[in-house]
From TrEMBL:
Hydrolase is among the record's keywords: no
Pfam families: Methyltransf_11
Protein origin, superkingdom: Bacteria
Name the record gives this protein: Class I SAM-dependent methyltransferase
Presence of keyword Transmembrane: no
InterPro entries for this protein: Methyltransf_11, SAM-dependent_MTases_sf
UniProt domain Methyltransferase type: residue ranges: 38-128
Molecular-function annotations in GO: methyltransferase activity
Transmembrane segments: none
C-alpha cells in the first residue's frame, strides 16, 4: 500500500510527523534504559532512533525492502529483518516491549498482529501501538481538501484504530490486560505550503496513491483547494494519534 518507496520520500512525507511522535509514544509506552524493544513496522527508523537514545536495546522488523535497507544502513548494529507483524520470526517471551508506531491501521489482520506482538513479549511486559486519529491526524488537512472535490473519497479515517476506542477493542481481542488508550499530539510547523504539499506527490501511502491516480488538471485543482484552506505558510498542523498499551 504505497510503502515500497524511497526512504527519503517517506521521510519527507511522514518522517516530519513520525519523528516527534516517536518521543511522545515511547514515553507513553514506558520505555526506559533497561527495556528490550521490538519495533514492529520500523520503517526507516523514527521510533528506533528515539528508543536507542533512551539507552534501550532494539530489534526491528518491516515488510518494505527499501525501508529495511535504509534502516540497516542507518543502524548497522541493530538486528532488522524483513517481515510482517502477523508472522513475527521471534521466539516467545523475548522482549520487554513490542511497539508499533503508525502500523496497526495497515496490518492485514490487526488482531493477529497484536497477538503475535504479545506472544514475543515477556509476561508482565508491554505491547503498545499508536495510529493517527482519522479526523485530526497528520493527514486530516489533506483529506479535508480532497473531500471538498470528492466527497465520497475513501480516506484513512476508516482504517483500524483511527477512532477512539478501536485500539482498545483490538487489544482486548488480542487478550492484552489493563489496556489504556489516550490521545497523543504533536505540532509540526510547515514553513511554506509547497513544503507541506510536495511530499503528497511522492506516492507514499493511501494519500500519495490518491494523488498519483489523479490526472494533471485534477491534481492542480486539489493543490489549489488545499492551498486555499491552509494558506501560503507558515502554518502548524496539530496531529493527534490514538495510543494504546496493554500488559501481557
Amino acid at each position: 500500500m504505497g510503502f515500497v518507496v524511497p526512504p527519503e520520500a517517506y521521510g519527507r512525507f511522514m518522517g516530519r510527523y513520525a519523528d516527534p511522535l516517536a518521543r511522545v509514544f515511547a514515553t507513553f509506552a514506558g520505555v526506559g534504559a533497561d527495556a528490550d524493544v521490538l519495533d514492529v513496522g520500523c520503517g526507516p527508523g523514527a521510533l528506533t532512533a528515539d528508543v536507542l537514545q533512551s539507552g534501550a536495546a532494539v530489534t526491528a522488523i518491516d515488510p518494505s525492502p527499501p525501508f529495511v535497507d535504509a534502516f540497516r544502513e542507518r543502524f548497522p548494529d541493530v538486528d532488522v529483518r524483513r517481515g510482517t507483524a502477523e508472522e513475527l520470526p521471534y521466539e516467545a517471551d523475548r522482549f520487554t516491549h513490542a511497539l508499533a508506531q503508525l502500523v496497526v491501521h495497515f496490518m492485514t489482520d490487526p488482531v493477529r498482529g497484536l497477538t503475535q506482538m504479545a506472544r514475543v513479549t515477556r509476561p508482565g511486559g508491554t505491547v503498545a501501538a499508536c495510529v493517527w486519529d482519522g479526523p485530526t491526524g497528520a493527514l486530516a488537512p489533506f483529506w479535508d481538501a480532497v473531500h471538498v472535490l470528492d466527497p465520497d473519497a475513501q480516506d484513512e479515517a476508516l482504517l483500524s484504530g483511527a477512532h477512539r476506542g478501536h485500539l482498545t477493542q483490538l487489544f482486548g481481542a488480542a487478550r492484552l490486560r489493563g489496556v489504556v488508550e489516550e490521545p497523543i499530539t504533536v505540532d509540526v510547523v510547515h514553513p511554506t505550503f509547497e513544503e507541506w504539499w510536495e511530499p503528497y506527490t511522492f506516492g507514499v501511502g493511501p494519500a500519495g496513491e490518491y494523488v498519483r491516480a489523479l490526472d494533471a488538471a485534477s491534481r492542480d485543482e486539489l493543490e489549489k483547494v488545499a492551498q486555499g484552506r491552509l494558506g501560503d505558510g507558515p502554518f502548524t498542523v496539530s496531529a493527534t494519534a490514538w495510543a494504546a498499551r496493554g500488559a501481557v
